[in-house]
Amino acid sequence: MEEIQIEIDQQGNVTIEVSGAPGGKCLDLTKSVEQLLGGEVSQRDFTREYYIKESVDQEEKLSR
User: What is the pTM of this model?
Assistant: First the structure.
């Protein structure tokens, strides 16, 4: 289950943290939030989950 945590500090800086989303899926999940906030991303720190490839369902694997 994916989870997005958004924190806004007193200066208005926003931190978005995603868990439960392996690979680049986290970027897909935060894209719309980033667009709604209208600012630019000043820094991106990736967790270990980012470097994990998304698993392929057994059924999908067999149909290839």
Answer: 0.73
